[in-house]
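Hi C.,

You asked whether I'd gotten around to modeling the 189-residue construct. I have! Everything is below, sequence then structure, no commentary in between.
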Amino acid sequence: MFVPLMLLLVSLAGVVVAFALPGWSDLLLLSGPMALASLYLLLRALPVRPKRADQVILDGSNVMHWRDGKPDIATVREVLDHAAALGMHPGVVFDANAGYLLFDKYAGDRAFAHFLKLPPDRIMVVPKGTPADPTILTAARDLGARVISNDRFRDWVEDFPELTAPGHLIRGGYRDGALWLDTDAPRVR
């Protein structure tokens, strides 16, 4: 990016000289096209921001029970993979007791990140005694994300009215052993 920028600056200096000094107007024939070409090269060298994926927050403590009603970390991993395959960018929030239910011991963000093969900044285990629901809903609001859960969050609708918007909650589960996510509902922003 340095070279196109330098070419642009030199060619613009040539354009300024061609207009400012009498007798140097022929320099415009060289510096004008050079300025346009270097501007084109500079724009091509700029990094392109990838399209932001559809953000989703998994209610990990809900999702882990989707297969046969028994807590299973593999279920969460499968839902994460499925969501990513659908173009979603998932994060997960767990209740503090999720590690005890899954591994018979406490597990924090880093432990879950290891088990789920996700960066630790995409996992959150809420502190003991703190309900996960408001954390999930606040994260979803802050990120403009949808929530993957079968929980209806009825106790939180007054504080989070977006829960009633079609497509904000994505339900899911297993039918005949196959994972499904209800992503057909239109997203209202």
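If it helps when you're writing up: The first helix runs from residue 2 to 20.

Thanks,
B.
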